[in-house]
Amino acid sequence: MKLSKEIHKYNKYPERVLQFGEGNFLRAFSDWMIDLMNKKAGFGSSVVVVQPLEQGLVDMLNDQDGLYTLYLNGIKDGEAVREKMVVEAISRGINPYRDYEQYKEIASNPELRFVISNTTEAGIVFDEKDRFEDKPQKSFPGKVTALLYERYKEFDGAKEKGLIFIPCELIDKNGENLKKAILQYAALWKLEDAFIRWIEESNTFCNSLVDRIVPGFPKDSIEEITKELGYEDKLVVEGEQFHLWVIEGPDFVAEEFPADKTGLNVLFVKDLAPYRTRKVRILNGAHTSMVPVALLYGLETVREAVEDKLVGKFVRETIFDEIVPTLDLPKEELDYFANAVLDRFKNPFIKHFLTSIALNSHSKFETRVLPSLLMYKDRKGELSKKIVFSLASLIKLYENKANLELKDDQEILEMYERLWAAHDGTEDSIGKIVETVLAQEKIWKMNLNAVAGLKEQVCVYLKKIEQVGMVEAIKEVN
Ligand SMILES: NC(=O)c1ccc[n+]([C@@H]2O[C@H](COP(=O)([O-])OP(=O)(O)OC[C@H]3O[C@@H](n4cnc5c(N)ncnc54)[C@H](O)[C@@H]3O)[C@@H](O)[C@H]2O)c1
Ligand SMILES: O=P(O)(O)OC[C@@H](O)[C@@H](O)[C@H](O)[C@H](O)CO
Fold this sequence. Notes:
This protein is an alpha/beta fold. It has helices at 24-28, 30-40, 58-63, 100-105, 140-154, 174-188, 193-202, 222-229, 251-256, 273-297, 302-307, 309-323, 331-345, 354-357, 361-380, 385-397, 401-404, 410-421, 427-438, 441-444, 454-468, 470-473, and strands at 15-20, 46-50, 68-76, 79-87, 90-94, 114-117, 164-167, 204-205, 207-211, 237-240, 244-248, 266-269.
């Protein structure tokens, strides 16, 4: 028996929320919150989900009438808990590549008010190849611009039909960047000035920062879970208990989106920059910098990494000695956050695979780790050893990318292919590999060979890893 409305009755509300992205994160985060807001704060809104890519999960979602089971595992009020619930927020999913008319009709729903998205770091982009006539446009902002134009025409530019955007992509100023891309499309497609004014004046683009560890589908334990549930659910999603959503926007957003009235950890603020920097540098920075080291060490999950004697020490010292000193918030606050993050990493109920965090490691290293390396050098006048060691490990990790099925930008994968194939084991050859990787301005937004001493230090560590393997090499920096 599969999960569906036949076995789980639920209320559908007007579709007031449009969601781009049907991935694990939103289903374990904002959809869960909207479900609670419907049940506890009279929000009265269903979510219509649009699949941003041609391939995706909306068929599966529709097959289960928008329902899925969420497990929230972790520590709540000091107690270990494993809660499960069926999330009822989603009314249906649409694949705009197949059902464009259905997608277009969303624009003329007078009750629509919010747009939530998570299209990964790659999603909020302007692609000048997108054309107005495309059905649909390739990029997420292209699709939204076309939809907004439909809405603008349908309601004659009525001010109250503007939408509130709360993007969840983990990029700086996600709301502002989405708006910028939409305005670029409006200009590219030569849409009228009045439409551009309507975007500017009647639509609201909030920046937001999300935080919840969501490992996703529990592939390891799905058989037991199915037995426990008594029904089949192809969209089970697992996340931790901890959650934080920081939303930067005008006051009326908090009134209209009553997440903070339901005991949820949702903050409406005027400036989210400090929250973002703290989270991205400490939590995501620790994740990204531990991945190559822990994988080469032979570990599989985040928990194993922080609980291992040597790798755990490496992770803690990276955070407290090399990341925290580069941040500007009060030290006690940073230490408190960092300790809480380490506790979250040790969550015994969550299996967070290092290989899943490894996806696109290079762009993550650039945004989440490199700023700490550069700031540390600036402030202390020397290199942060552990972060540099992590960079050397990253280069080594990509030698055997096929073993771990590492996914990254194709150009990056091809570069490593060439570099490692030409490697003859000599110091010169290591130097060549390191110099070439550090020179990739497309990845690092600068030539890292310009950082004094960096190339030499990466070479030293890479050579050590080559010679003695990670289990011994990590002792160099511990
Ligand atoms: N999983 C977590 O713990 C977590 C926590 C906070 C933030 N995030 C953010 O969420 C993202 C991953 O989401 P997920 O965990 O739901 O993964 P997922 O693979 O389940 O979902 C990814 C979603 O992004 C869409 N997408 C992917 N590439 C796209 C592109 N180029 N254009 C438009 N849409 C695109 C997919 O269609 C899908 O809906 C990451 O970028 C991460 O920063 C994840
Ligand atoms: O989701 P990614 O792949 O961008 O990054 C991996 C993790 O660092 C990330 O998912 C964190 O668990 C999350 O950002 C916690 O809020």
